[in-house]
Amino acid sequence: MIPLAVLTDIAAELPNAFPPRRTPVPDADADEVMGFFTDATLCIGCKACEVACKQWNQLPADGLEFTGYSYDNTKHLGATTWRHVAFKEKITPDFGKWLMVSDVCKHCAAAPCQQSCPTGSIVYNEFGSVYVQPDICNGCGYCVVACPFGVIDRSMIDGHAHKCTLCFDRQTEGMEPACAKSCPTDSIQFGPIKQLRERARERVERLHEQGRADAYLYGADSVGDYGPLHSFFLLEDHPHEYNLPVAPPQPLRNQAPRYAAGLAVGAALAAVAAFVFGRAARAAP
Amino acid sequence: MPPHDTQTGRPPVGPQVMAEGRGLGFPAAGGAPALSDRTAETVPGYYDVPMLKPPVWKDLISWYFFLGGVSAGAYVTSRLAERYGGPKFRPLATVGTCVAAAAAVPCAPLLIADLGDPKRFHHMLRVFKPESPMNLGAWVLTAYHGAGAAALAREWLRRGKADDEQKNQGFVRNAADGLLVAVADVGGIPLALLLASYTGVLLTGGATPAWCKNAWLPALFSASAVSSGASAVSLAAEALGRVGVDTAADVARGPLHIVQSVAHLAEVITLVGYLSSVRRAVPAAWGTLVAAAGAEVLRRLPAGRRLRPWLDIGSAALSLFGAYHLRSTVVNAGHDSANDPQSRL
Ligand code: SF4
Description:
Chain A is an alpha+beta fold.
């Protein structure tokens, strides 16, 4: 028997879910679309952003574990880790350098996680960021496989999917996100995405003038056939060195051929069944 | 286990990397090539941390895919047997409808149990969003349950009645019968085909390399649904025939065998297509190939009247095993490919 408590819980959820509320979403180029520009050449790997994010968003600690491969003991983003400072010690016979960048949800302009969400929990908010409504998510886990950046994850604590909100709550009060606020070198910059892109392009030009020819923008325009990202990066090495994909797929685009393939095979086999049963019916008893 | 893993459920990556001495940057002798020369093969990646998150689904999802397929296949087989096979196959249609219903009953609970927050399962139905295969699937499953209930209700209303008796029982009863048939066939058959194949599309919507955008998967799941559904009907008909229920097992054997064989052939072709398109080893897949081949061989063995039903039951059971094995193989291949630090996008 279903206990009464479960039924009252379900009843309590109903007004949240019905009817679905809609927020007017600015189009991707509008002035009010906000984003992050994370500049790897300025990152000193201090992890202030990780701490500020955890503290503001009241996220639990992930435990104390040493990876042993670098000063990165966070390893990856997750349901309770919304900023992750990647830290790679790149040592070869000829040179050594540290690659550092603060990774975060990319707030994709066409986000697979948003497309995949079957409850409509994942929406674009009025700042154009991808937001998981915690009172709607039922923890189906589809966004976890849809995100090509391995960002969003389902929490074992409450069973819901969580990721960076771009500090939705702070933004509605006119404040910048906690990570950007705490970044001591301005490696993380927050602002209207249009202005950020301009500023980032100027920065790349300046770095090239200084002879740092490897500097480039990741996600400012598009990455392969994907993009742009509302949270983009300035990198100085191959994206894979930072665990970022070169060609993230858009798996939920263009599904018609896949449905067609499945239905065609099913229909063809059904036709075979109809034919053989019809023939057997006409055959002499 | 450290607390990190109890919260996220992820395997630890660091100590293992350290133990194997693999954690130190770029391995190429003679320095790193220039940025532009680096392809996915020459760049080492970020230690051994996988780029993607593995699916959070438990094994229940394979059972759901399997039972949904069996139910859809049995439903289509039995509805078509009645529609095109006529009175001869009435008993078979009854058995098949019951098999489809029995396989459909656990589907929704399995799906709900796999949610992180099961008491919010109905949130899937608060929007209609066919762009998300998960949402479309929730609607299809709900509607399919309705069609299955209509087919079942009709079987109940006609129980114990001969065909001509059924035809003349007054306007209201005839109209109700026609309506139920329309819902069960015109609505139910397309829904069943969609139920069988959407699960494949669902997986292809993941960034997971073993699934991503793979058009073979829905075709494979459809073929497997028909082969396992027809096998489930055959198994039930033969087994109930053993205990004296009239299931038309003798007349149904011929047509059912053809449906099973053609569906197995389609299953093997699409499975080989899938395996060649994912370009990574899926070692467990041979299990399904062997099961399909074994089922075909068993059914073709020469046997007398007494042995025949048992061979058919064995063959159908093998085919059902192959269908479950297929779902869990494909789901596991997805997990493996997402956990593989080498599978960078
Ligand atoms: S990076 Fe992943 S989680 Fe973030 S918006 Fe894009 S798809 Fe969604």
